[in-house]
Write a structure and sequence with these properties.
Radius of gyration: 23 Å
Low-confidence stretches: none
Shape: globular
Mean pLDDT: 96
CATH superfamily of the largest domain: Methylthiotransferase, N-terminal domain
Number of domains: 4
Bound molecules: S-adenosyl-L-homocysteine, iron/sulfur cluster
Strand order of the largest sheet: 3-2-4-5-6-7
Distance between the termini: 46 Å
Number of helices: 14
Length: 473
């Protein structure tokens, strides 16, 4: 494939940084440190994008707050995957009327996937006059330029033109934690599952160059991060657009070669591209966590076809069997959509039976949400909301039962876990993750945060494991 994509040049990023410093002078003119608030909805990719927005805001001299009345700049980074997320955003943006009234100079920006949809950008334009700046996911790299336009011209700015996407390196980043880090390896999606809005709002697949990814991974390890999650909408497609001989498994192997004690995780994998090479690489790379999130979406072949998922129930089961034969301790999680247009009771029963058969460690279940402009939005959808809710409840019950059984099997075992934070609770004051990513609540010295320790698991329920830290692992 010809190597063709829009890369933002380092000079352009330098210009954005210069603008940050100009904005810093303007915002700090009264000698007071400006405060910013970044509110993030949706997936890990959005979390990673918000780290870039905060990186730029820090370059503008901003401190950070969670109090919207105190903030001089509010950025709401939105999600469009389901209607529920959009409703929450609109409700919360509407509530900012109060803060803007109290603080008329406050700048309110709404960015991300929701506003990359034309009808949503229009809605904000017409019904939310308090919003000063609206920009889609492809414009994050030029947030300083857009913000400066708002400050200079005192008028609303909208930057949500259709765009198949860019790759921008060198944007500063203010990371959320000190133990776990997100590392985007690619952006966009080419799969066009019929229910999904992501390919329309996040553009075509663009992989970062392997040397950029490796350099960032090395920086993270040197900075003491112990848990690195490689991000992409479909990470197994990594490299296909680059026209060089590198795929996702090769990338894992190269990151695994970086010296240091750390874990490599990744999400999300698409079953149609999850190869034997990927599973073998996971099994052979000692730093690669024994966890795969492999969204199946449905157990019915007819529904999978209607969803344009490009695999069958049988192919999925074969893949899992292969992965488990190579990694017997593999933790397997999934996403499932209930109530896809026209899904019958029998077809839903096939999803239940698949889940019984696979016994996922955890399942993320969603009721189908109609997305404007997607093919599924115009498919006949005869089942009622109540019917779908009933199916959803049945699936949740099954999922909870299996997760509790799976967690029960850890009781009495010793697990090497990474302590990733404090919970603020007295009894179990630390949170940790097993190699496979299961949540463990521990009691122990807060000094253990950021360290691998061995934990004896004493109990478990649907959502978590509980244990005692034994010793440095
Ligand atoms: N790229 C990832 C996930 C993207 S969205 C993947 O393909 O796995 C995360 C999950 O949201 C999806 O796996 C799907 O289960 C769910 N989802 C996406 N669109 C949806 C919709 N319109 N309604 C309900 N759930 C949806
Ligand atoms: Fe959406 Fe499918 Fe792409 Fe995942 S693979 S982002 S579900 S279109």
């Amino acid at each position: 494939m010809k190597y063709e994509r829009t890369s933002i040049t380092p000079q352009e990023i330098d210009r954005q940084l210069e603008l940050c410093h100009r904005i810093a002078d303007r915002l700090g003119a009264d000698g007071r440190r400006p405060l910013a608030m970044v509110d993030t909805y949706g997936c890990q990719q959005n979390e990673a994008d918000s780290e870039k927005l905060r990186g730029y805001l820090a370059e503008m001299g901003c401190g950070f707050t969670q109090d919207e009345f105190e903030a001089d700049i509010i950025v709401v980074n939105t999600c469009a995957v389901r209607e529920h997320a959009e409703m929450r955003v609109l409700g919360n943006v509407g509530a900012l009327n109060h803060t803007k009234k109290a603080k008329p100079d406050q700048i309110i920006a709404v960015c991300g996937c929701m506003v990359q949809q034309e009808h949503m950008a229009e809605k904000i334009r017409k019904s939310y006059p308090i919003v000063d700046l609206v920009f889609g996911p492809h414009e994050i790299w030029r947030f300083p330029e857009l913000l400066e336009r708002v400050l200079e011209r005192h008028r609303r700015v909208f930057a949500t033109e259709k765009n198949s996407g860019v790759v921008a390196e060198g944007i500063p980043r203010q990371r959320d934690g000190k133990v776990k880090a997100w590392l985007s390896v690619m952006y966009g999606c080419n799969n066009f599952c019929t229910y999904c809005v992501v390919p329309y709002v996040r553009g075509r697949e663009r992989s970062r160059l392997p040397e950029e990814v490796i350099a960032e991974a090395e920086e993270l390890v040197a900075a003491g991060y112990r848990d690195i999650t490689l991000l992409g909408q479909n990470v197994n497609s990594y490299g296909k657009d680059l026209g060089i001989d590198v795929d996702f498994a090769d990338l894992i192997r190269r990151i695994n070669d970086i010296p240091g004690d750390f874990l490599i995780r990744f999400m999300t994998s698409h079953p149609k591209d999850a190869t034997e090479k990927l599973f073998r690489t996971m099994a052979e790379c000692e730093k690669c966590a024994r966890h795969i999130h492999l969204p199946v979406q449905s157990g019915s072949n007819r529904v999978l076809r209607a969803m344009n998922r490009s695999y069958t129930r049988e192919k999925y089961l074969e893949e899992i069997a292969l992965a488990r034969s190579l990694m017997p301790d593999l933790v397997l999680t999934t996403d499932i959509i209930v109530g896809f247009p026209g899904e019958t009771e029998e077809e839903f029963a096939e999803t239940l039976s698949l889940c019984e058969e696979v016994r996922f460690d955890a399942m993320f279940t969603f009721i189908y949400s109609k997305r404007v402009g997607t093919p599924a939005a115009s498919m006949p959808d005869p089942y009622t909301r109540e019917e779908k809710q009933r199916r959803f409840d049945a699936l949740t019950e099954l999922s909870n039962r299996i997760s509790a059984e799976k967690h029960g099997a850890y009781v009495g075992t010793r697990q090497r876990v990474l302590v990733d934070g404090e919970t603020g609770r007295e009894e179990y004051n630390l949170s940790a993750r097993t190699n496979g990513g299961r949540l463990v609540h521990l009691k122990g010295d807060p000094g253990l945060v950021g360290q691998f320790v061995t934990a004896e698991i004493t109990s478990g329920n649907t959502w978590a494991l509980y244990g005692k830290a034994e010793e440095d692992g």
